[in-house]
Amino acid sequence: MRVLICFLLCSVLCFGQNEENPKTLNDSAISIYKNNPKKAISILEKSKSIAKAQNQKFEEARAINGLGLVYRDLGDFNMAIELSNQATKISADSLLVASAFNNIGVCKRQLGEYKEALTYYLKALDLYDALDEKLKEATVTNNIGMVYSYLGVNDKAIEYHLKAKDVFEALDNKKGISEVYNNIAIIYANDGNLQKALSYFKYSLNIEQVLDDKKGIAESVNNVGAVFYYLQEIDSAMVYFTKSAFIEKQIGNYAGVGASYNNMAQVLMEYNRAKEAKKYIDSAYYYATTYDVAVDVETALQNYSQYYEVTNDKDKALSYYKEFSKVRDSVLNLETTSKIAELEIEFQTEKKEKEILSQRADLAEKELDLSKKNIYILGLGALAVVLGLLGYLFYNQQKLKNRQLKKENQLKDALIKIETQSKLQEQRLRISRDLHDNIGAQLTFIISSLDNLKYGFKIPEKLGNKIKGISEFTSTTIHELRDTIWAMNKDKITFEDLQIRISNFIDQANLAAQNIKFNFNVDKSVDSDMAFTSVKGMNVYRIIQEAINNAVKYAEASAIDVDISMQEDAMIIRIKDDGKGFNEATINHGNGLNNMRKRSEDIKGQLTIQSEIGQGTTVEVKI
């Protein structure tokens, strides 16, 4: 009996010690914090107290940084930054410090402080690289891609995301793969490739559901809803936004709730339900300001401006628009973008310099080995052998020096190329943002003002028609401006991009001219990976757009066919209608036909127009 009692007592003591072990508590909290943040906070606070009492500095710092991770996911970014900074002061462990730096980088990105975010990401990346932590290094690389995505530098963003994706797939890390697909989908959505974005978001959502990651599910559900909104499938969008807000509330992430409410408000306002939208804007603004989520504050202010404009309170609309502009300019400005580009160049330069120093050290070791061998051989032998070895040594030294110089020149060229590309991207980004933010906003204001004139005053019918014509012309200008910005933001335009753009335009034309049947066919011989320069791709798109517009306006056609095929090394684009046709010799060539000919000449293409009275018209471009 005494033996049994001792055994039970030892079991209880051992169990108690295991339960009070800070390492076990930390591991337990980190494993559940995504789905049960409140319980995780309780466990981590307990672990912190025990570790401090037992003078376990590493586990104390780990518990504090763990709290930083939880508060980050709950949207309290300033608290998360404070905790992770505190953890780095308690323990200098490289793995822990790298985790803290990455967490601070995520919080800074969410607060719109992109330069600081990239600084911390690069510090974390350097530490993980030195520790050979491939998985964590890939996570930080993916996060850097998100910074460039927010700044609109999409080529750079995709480069970092794909680099991270290769590592995640090699390690079969499902969570990492899901996050990469989610981030790339956001870029496709911003570029207008909605079907591709939807496919990527759904793929990410499936992975999050398999992992049962509530926060990941909420984010993916919200993104799917956004794509359905852009596809004008409003009922589906509202279902997904509502589901996202519900999950975010469940896990206590009220910053995420704000984002969902902003989305729901935009949907309702677009469909003339402004009064219903107001409560969602109020809630979104409350959560965004409470938890300092810069992007959601900006969106909420923009929603307020649009709401008061719709309800004809012009003073408040203007006031909120000014606030929105102020927040937007403080979050995203050219100086910040420039500094981030400079920061990355400095990081890449430092990395290359370390590689050069490492190569020099290796060369020095090799030279030392050769010297020892030479001394040994000199001790053994003849003058002829000594002279031969000295000649061999001199030859190798020259060869190594030449190779070293070649590598150093290659590294310098690479750095110059990186710097040049960054500066060019900065210029293109500045111009496209100026077009979008200044000219685009002014044209939108003109349309709004014309609509207010039409509905706010009694205007004669003739003047009303004139105002309507100006409004329609301004709307067309906005669409053309967006097309131009789309082309400017790309180094090259793939045929797949061009095909999607043409298809979207034909869909819009089909809605506007319901009595005309449109057919768009691409022959299998056309390579979808073919790429044009942004200028050439834009000219091809404009020629097709002009030909379709002419057919819709003047041909009185019942069918318009657009066919693209390949003949040997040339692409053939043919736009054909069955309309009334015309005699080219007798008509006055307007701007439309002249513009098509000029654009065709600019891209070294051959444009032919065939038309007969009553037989329709065919426009053919050979590129």
Automatic annotation (TrEMBL):
Q: Where are the TPR repeats?
A: 61-94, 98-131, 178-211
List, alphabetically, the CDD domains matched. HATPase_UhpB-NarQ-NarX-like (cd16917)
Origin: domain of life: Bacteria
**SMART domains, sorted:** HATPase_c (SM00387), TPR (SM00028)
Which InterPro entries does the annotation name?
HATPase_C_sf, HATPase_dom, His_kinase_dom, Sensor_HK_TwoCompSys, Sig_transdc_His_kin_sub3_dim/P, TPR-like_helical_dom_sf, TPR_rpt
EC assignment: the record states 2.7.13.3
Keywords of the record, alphabetical order, are: ATP-binding, Coiled coil, Kinase, Membrane, Nucleotide-binding, Phosphoprotein, TPR repeat, Transferase, Transmembrane, Transmembrane helix, Two-component regulatory system
Quote the Pfam families the UniProt record gives.
Answer: HATPase_c, HisKA_3, TPR_12, TPR_8
Class of enzymatic activity (EC top level): transferase
Coiled-coil regions listed in the entry: 340-374
What's its catalytic activity? ATP + protein L-histidine = ADP + protein N-phospho-L-histidine
Q: GO molecular function: any one?
A: kinase activity
TM ranges are 375-395
Domain Histidine kinase residues, every copy: 540-623
Protein name as it appears in the record: histidine kinase
Which species is the source of this protein?
Answer: Winogradskyella marincola
